[in-house]
């Protein structure tokens, strides 16, 4: 080799070394709130390389990153780290690709003429995880498919896995709100899941091509074609399926009854109950709830509901997170919940989620429906005694909207038609109004505010006017930190009050009033740790304020003396946590713990009694004065909420649950059913909180390839510190109310059966429950014993409860409905004799609740006529013609006894003893 050749070789070596040194040169650069595109262009100038990409791949997301002494590969990786973009360097060119990598070689037989190979996408299976994901041209054969193909994740040759996690949110197109309990699954593969309360889902799939499907009666069925390159998100929205006029469904998700881990849950879809015939044609959420096993009415025309043997005050009724103390209108004939603004209702009668507390038996969680954020819409009805209207209007299209609902009655004309003069001169009216505002700030922040007001006024006699009402408000902020973490902040306030105005003879006119108010702040966080653990945790604090009663003279001539019972105040707080733990494909647990505390607070004059003697005004040992917010008494303890589910096969599951609950507030009523003028009292040194523990077990079965489902569930519940009253107890304006109370223990047990057919021309359900509720009032003092201290039937004990609800679609526009209900008679105490004492004749009564009033049964029928199904109409409508109590059964509301001329006469009162025909016009626009 001559000197010239040596020089050229040396020069070439220097050029190559210079090129390598340039390629590996370290670079420092700072990006401050710039887009990905701007960052790439800045780097392009810095390193003298050329980037090739499509700007449509990048959104408006800003990045802020600092690189000091980094290679160009490290900087490019940092810029593209949170995007689905890959890159390849060829000479001094940097080629960006979305999702996949550029490859130098194609798989064998890639250009095969076999049609079955050219119409699909090569898929990575668990046995061939190193194969590349490559998309070919193909033609779909599925009519339901979205024609687009969605790529998910970023391919990484250095970190190939068997499966990748695909997650996202499914939202309603009109409201922008997540769709709960939507089935999301992969076509022709045994991979499926269900969206949570926010519409979030998560699946694990191998890389390659898949067809993603959703299924829901409320939103129809869709299919999406996806290619999985790696972990990633895929969110989409669905349109609501509005053609459900013939259905009477309780659950909107087909397999939720067997999949759900929490035991003892009943879910009601408000949209699907409109064909059920109910009294006076009013669509009623809570009346439908009483047709389900385990939920009973306290009596026809009575306020309150009994769930698994509990009293009416042991149910926590929530309306958008705020408590409704009196859920009834018009003597209990209607519920106070407007059906046209309501969305879903969930009744927890078994294992109550740990976030809820303060009641012994159940939680009835009612949520308003999602507002249409894209167009003006509404719904209403006109019936013989009520009119109802709800409208929804966007404020900022797609982001914020307002819903206003109102309902009122014009029922006095019915009372005027009755022959009984005492009722003919009566009047009764009610109205309620609700306002809801929703605002979607962005994908991670939502605000919702609700206000509700209801008022009832009635007069049974000409000298008294009774009125009562609810006033509630709530605001909720949902914040999503990322796919795993979210926080829900709630504030709610509730007020219930009643008033009696008496204007009669003898200058005894008065104005009597009562008020209870509570305000609660609650923080609830969700953390999706992984596929096996979904954790919820948080804290809540609730302040009670009660004005137990006050009376004032009405008019200058009234001889009534002004009097007021001392106010009560209490603070109830709790910490809670739960873990939805999926052990494997068959076994899952929902493990919850709630620790609650209660403080009885001043100002108050608190009585203390001699513990060795029965509580009475004569045994008061001390009355201590407490200042404002001074702690009088503290109670608290842990509340366990455990449930589990095991799949015996694909369509059969076994569920079991155990829960403990504590209740710090109590309803005082001597009636067998709740009354609008009952009062609430807080726990204090003389009144301990009520406690209960319940175990349950059940089988849940869906029949394969059919619309039938069946369930059988049993439970046993123990309760203590239950309240009852001494005979002849005086509860009104009593400063020493504890002297009228008795406390004891109780037990309830039962078996619940449900058979339901969700779809088809004939649909509906058959529900039956056998249950018992017993109470024991025992004491070392004979005066505080009832029935010798032995167990006896509680007022709400009604062993047999049978309900049959059916709907038969004759044609597309005509359907008939039937509703049959049978219940055992309620316990009652009868007079069994009389005796004379000191010259006075007295009545001798049986043991408490030894007898029963006659059994209750009722049959209702209805005809539903829909308008034509044209799309281009001002409004879609249907007419409901129904007859309530078509057999004219004289069902007893109460049995009472009157001494007439020395004879004890028994009387039975009824609410609806004749058939009640109704025609209601419903419309939707």
Automatic annotation (TrEMBL):
One of its GO terms (cellular component) is cell outer membrane. It comes from Formosa agariphila (strain DSM 15362 / KCTC 12365 / LMG 23005 / KMM 3901 / M-2Alg 35-1). Keywords: Cell outer membrane, Membrane, Receptor, TonB box, Transmembrane, Transmembrane beta strand, Transport. The keyword Membrane applies. InterPro entries: Beta-barrel_TonB, Beta-barrel_TonB_sf, CarboxyPept-like_regulatory, Plug_dom, Plug_dom_sf, TonB-dep_rcpt-like. Pfam families: CarbopepD_reg_2 (PF13715), Plug (PF07715), TonB_dep_Rec_b-barrel (PF00593). It is found in: Cell outer membrane. This is TonB-dependent receptor. It is a multi-pass membrane protein. Belongs to the TonB-dependent receptor family.
